[in-house]
Design brief:
The protein is 16% helix and 32% strand. It has 330 residues and is an alpha+beta fold. A 5-stranded mixed beta barrel has the order 2-3-4-6-5. A 5-stranded mixed β-barrel has the order 11-12-13-15-14. The relative contact order is 0.10.
């Protein structure tokens, strides 16, 4: 009798332990969902319904297929961002959150769509998003070299494919590229992509990437007004997205801008034109210190930094403005 009782107690404890383990096994960080060794970039959790510890909402894109971008600031080196698509009638979960909200997610379906790992809100699984806090600072954009998110190469059939998927770890992450020039437009599935080429490596095709403005709230037609062949930017920020449909001849990554502020056309206080503010710029500024009669178009080599409301003198007000931009662009 005592032996049966002990076996009963043991069975109850084992069931309880299993329930506890199974409950915890269904909760994953974005990193655990995104990280993969699959050469195609597919999540190891594809096809499963899971809970997610979430992160900070960095962008919302409405329309017929509302989607959120969420990034976990605990993983600043990659594999820390994901897209959430709200397929529910009226997009109630999409409308529930704002940019800057820190959220957790439950009962989300992990899907691979056009090369992107996404969390789908599907009615049959009772999905939910919980706002933990609001007004959080957004993660800083990761500065990357263009060869880290390189453009696709065109094959003999006119199709465009990336050489590898090394950029996979940056999927849906905020990135920044520096010192680039637009060299081509009208590319990609929707003819809305353009090429950003590294101005420091003008002869190396590996130092270029594709970008698109389809999510940019300030665009006109396919492109933002700043974008045209020959335009130089000190910096461009955006969210990296993949578009893959091999049957149609496409497999590429695109840097998606979201607003005018994502483009840095000219770095303020950059007096030597190299897209950063450093000691070289300070030397130029010092050469014009207390100089008067600064006139357009030069404005004392740009040292009259109040030239948006020109006073013609390089003085303490210009020095204060120069200091505000010290080491920007580095």
């Amino acid at each position: 009798m005592a032996r049966k009782f002990l076996l009963y107690i043991f069975a109850v404890l084992m069931v309880s332990l299993c329930k506890s383990v199974l409950a915890g096994a269904g909760t994953y960080s974005i990193y655990e969902i995104q990280w993969t060794t699959d050469p195609n970039g597919n999540s190891p959790l594809e096809g499963q319904v899971i809970d997610c510890t979430g992160g900070i909402v960095t962008h919302k894109y409405g329309g017929s297929k509302p989607k959120l971008t969420i990034q976990d600031p605990n993983f600043p080196s990659g594999w820390g961002a994901i897209q959430v698509k709200d397929g529910l009638a009226g997009a109630p979960l999409f409308n529930k959150v704002a940019v800057g909200d820190r959220v957790t997610l439950s009962n989300m379906y992990v899907e691979e769509f056009r090369g992107n790992t996404t969390l789908q809100c599907l009615a049959g699984y009772d999905p939910n998003i919980t706002v933990v806090s609001s007004g959080n600072r957004l993660p800083e954009a990761i500065v990357v070299r263009l060869d880290e998110i390189a453009s696709p190469a065109q094959d003999l059939y006119g199709d465009w494919y990336v050489i590898n998927h090394n950029a996979e770890k940056y999927e849906h992450t905020w990135l920044r590229v520096k010192n680039v020039t637009v060299t081509a437009i009208d590319l990609g599935k929707a003819k809305d992509n353009y090429v950003l080429w590294d101005s420091d490596n003008p002869d190396d095709p590996n130092f270029s990437c594709w970008a698109s403005d389809y999510m940019n709230e300030d665009r006109s037609d396919n492109y933002h007004p700043y974008v045209y062949v020959g335009q130089h930017f000190c910096g461009v920020e955006g969210i990296l997205e993949q578009y893959t449909k091999v049957s149609d001849g496409w497999d590429y990554y695109q840097l998606l801008t979201t607003r005018s502020e994502d483009f840095v056309v000219q770095q303020a206080a950059d007096l030597d034109g190299d897209c950063d503010v450093d000691f070289v710029d300070f030397v130029i500024f010092a050469q014009h210190w207390l100089e008067e009669e600064c006139n357009e178009p030069d404005w004392c080599s740009g040292a009259d930094l109040t030239s948006d409301n020109p006073d013609g003198v390089v003085d303490i007000f210009d020095l204060s403005k120069f200091a505000q931009h010290w080491l920007e662009g580095k």
